Amino acid sequence: MSTDTRTITVGIDGSRPSLAAADWAAREAQRRRLPLRLLHAGTEPAVSGVDFDIDETNEIDVPAGCTRAALDRAAIELSYAHPALDIIARRTAAPAVPALLAAAVEAETLVLGSRGRTGSAGFPVGSVALGVAARADRPVVLVRAGELPEDERVPVVDGSPPSTAPYLPVVLGLDPDASADDLIGYAFDTAAVRSAPLHVVHPWTLPTSTLRPWRHRFPGTTVREHRVDGDPGPRLLEASTRAGLLVVGRRSGRGPGRAARSLIRHADCPVAVVPHD
């Protein structure tokens, strides 16, 4: 499927994590110049199923009698925050996991909320988020509650607007035992879209030629390699405290491994889970 038919899709359930995910997804859609699709799945009566038409004047045509519940409010608020963004809000009565997996097929990226911090033990990840991240055919980004736009940028110290600051690095955790072109390509592309550096954390056993074709394909992206002896997990967690996005892989047809699940729970930034061969 060509990229011009794809969207950035986010699951909305009214929770704080899902609203933080929606805000992150809107920024990603704007960066990639793609439509934003808001999707509420399930049979909860709190959300009305409405498609909004948002024109050049930022007017939203809401049918009479519509209650402005979670999906409605998210669409309206995001349209005002991002007036140039093409936003589609939809609801389905299908169960959340199969509905989100189906939506992922047509998405460039699927974005879901994770729960907020619970201290040094990290934060729990809901069964829907884990179930989708384990099976989706496309990258799934997990965003915790409390994530703010300025969190993905270099801290401002001179009083300038946070939105003008450079992006923090994209961090890629790379498994040398996998044929991971999809994973590496996603990380390089994401860094390029943000004009951010890419930091690659991998074991010493990774062949030096692995990243060479990607460096040629993305000559404007600054790449820093961090070779570690042993488990790269602690280094990735440390790197996530100074990253805008952590990118990890999972084998197609399998859920995230133990190391990836630990990173999903404990990382200090949004985590992209990318399926690969």
From TrEMBL:
Ranges of residues in domain UspA: 6-144, 217-275
- What superkingdom does the record give? Bacteria
**InterPro entries, per this entry?**
Rossmann-like_a/b/a_fold, Universal_stress_UspA, UspA
Q: Name one Pfam family in it.
A: Usp
Concerning its family, UniProt says: Belongs to the universal stress protein A family.
Q: Which PANTHER family match?
A: STRESS RESPONSE PROTEIN NHAX, UNIVERSAL STRESS PROTEIN UP12
What is the protein's given name?
Answer: Stress-inducible protein
Q: Which organism is it from?
A: Streptomyces olivochromogenes
